[in-house]
Amino acid sequence: MTTFATDHEAVRQLRELDERTRTAWEEYRSSVSDLAGEAYEEAELISWERLQRSLHELADERGRVASPSEPGGPRDPDPTH
Q1: HSE on the CB side for 22, CA within 13 Å?
Q2: Residue 71: what pLDDT?
């Protein structure tokens, strides 16, 4: 695959990850927007934890897209063992 094709694919994937990030935030906001009091407190905690998991997973994916591993798979950071 050419560098251009690889770069184009990475840009496409990053745009998709950006959209998924926006969607995660929208889902969080909509899950608590009409609530108040105790119902809000309970739903907000659950929704916040779900959002944080999603954002963490998306950040991991973004890191893999932005810094793909070398051909042949991931490298061992400690080659002495």
Answers
A1: 6
A2: 52
